[in-house]
């Protein structure tokens, strides 16, 4: 936990520095902030290729692959632009913004921004067990995938145990790229 | 016999050649196949490597983790065969690479760059979940050509050795074929020579037999003729009926003598007196005689080459031979025709001489007698020189004409050739040895004087055959000589010692114990001035070398008449040379 806290502190410092730089140099700040957001937006749909959803959740033919942003939306139009021409398999990508998490949402991937109405932790508990790849951006409560900044680059951690609980299978390729992986328990079986 | 052998021989050569070509083609094919396989394998290996890398870098490429990409790419450095590796994102930008030479920044440039022939270049797509993320480029160095070639050294060496072996086999087969052909030729030549030798031996044997008979027969004829001669001389004025009977007997004996003479000629046993003769002149001189002999239906033509050499030949015998041939030609042209007599110089070279076992190469004077007659069939042409062989109807020819010609020419050191074609004609060519003394020598036979008054001389007659001896004694008495007779050499020498008045010795040549020649030598030791005349019908003996009399030897041929004997004795006595 302390390691995560430390990471978080680092992230905060970086953000403060970024803000400071942004204040000092408005042009640079404008360029810096959207870049991180854009990378994360791109990552969101790229995760799809490395994740297998349970067969039971197979959507009807022609149904779009849905990326949900739950709670506060840090992306804005950046995400819409990022996924505009992308497909997952042969499915187009749709972006769905939700105020709060619901268990039976059409989401395949859900970015949990948290809000006053529903904290990230609450959102996670609502989506627990649902076949949704939960993505968080740092913080105490982490989803299956949790963004992290490492040496100024956007990286991620993977909670394979949580993925197993949601019935998801994450490619070892993705795991190998993760900053850290919480491995799934070998004896545990998904609900 | 040679046919199937040659065929199998050729088959073997073809087989060897085919094997060589097959071996060469197979080696080249194997080498090409190996090379191609190597190329395919190299490409396949590069493909696999590229695909493995593509699979490995998927996530790193997707999430732009360049450090991880570079690590993956660098892992391939361990493989020395890898020349360059590049990972390009889906915009074609190079995001990670390592290279031992160089690599372009953009995928499009990489794709169009020209590469060396010993490089294998492959591309592998980087995909995840049906999404194209980028491209992996991999450039392998194939093994350098010299090293690849070095692997073919051992099999290549084997192929070369095999080819050498085939070459040796081929040369061997060829040498064998050539040797066989040479052997074949040699066998054929030997067969030809053997056939010629057999023919010559046959002629020799027949000649010896004929000569032997003719010799003995000659002696007997000598007795008959001599006695008849004496009879006629003594009873010149006797009963005309008896004289006529004796004349008939003499006529028959003379014909018999002529026959034995021809047999002796064939046997090469007649004494010859060769001189340096102008053959062209002799032939021209004979033309009239031949016209008369051959009749009006046969045209006679003579063709003489200029600068003709003189021949060393017994001219009267040659004339006889030509007449004989002319008569044969006439008989071959019952309906008339043309007889051509041709003379020319000829050089029989070694090649010509080798074709016939008893021809000596050298210079000859050629006389060709050509007719336009019936010709002689090829199957009997080999026999025409044999005595008593004749193509004429029974009773028309003796079969001795050609054999006499053959014997005479051979004895003279010449050569006879006969060419004939049925229905076209026959040519007989006589090759007479060229005379070494091109200027005519003074006549070998001395001038014969009548010398009628010299009858007080004593002659010693030596002859083992009593009939001949008696005749000789009678003949000499008839000629007016004093005669002492001896039956052999021993007695002759005794008589010489007893009778110093003996001026001339008439001796037989062939006698038991001591022959005439030895006797003459011994007699001359005692009496150097003694003149010697030999009697002989047979020349194969001591006084004759190769059928030619020693110079200065006086000889009377049996059978002889009193007149012939007288003439020879007169010639001897007139000869100042003594001998």
Describe what this molecule looks like in 3D.
The complex is a heterodimer of chains A (191) and B (579). With 191 residues, chain A is of the alpha/beta class. Chain A contains six helices and ten strands. Chain A has an eight-stranded mixed β-sheet, with helices on both faces. Chain A is globular and about 35 Å long. Mean pLDDT of chain A is 79; it is low at 16-31. Chain B has four domains: 2-150, 2-Layer Sandwich (Beta-Lactamase); 153-264, no CATH class; 274-433, Heat Shock Protein 90, CATH 3.30.565; 458-574, Response regulator (Rossmann fold). Chain B has helices spanning 2-56, 58-62, 66-75, 107-112, 145-150, 153-234, 240-266, 279-294, 315-332, 350-354, 401-411, 466-479, 489-498, 516-526, 562-574; strands at residues 82-89, 94-99, 119-128, 131-141, 275-277, 298-304, 311-313, 337-348, 362-371, 415-421, 425-433, 458-462, 482-486, 502-508, 531-536, 544-545, 548-549, 554-557. In chain B, helix 14 (516-526) links the parallel strand 14 and strand 15. In chain B, helix 8 (279-294) packs parallel to helix 9 and helix 9 (315-332) runs antiparallel to helix 11 (401-411).
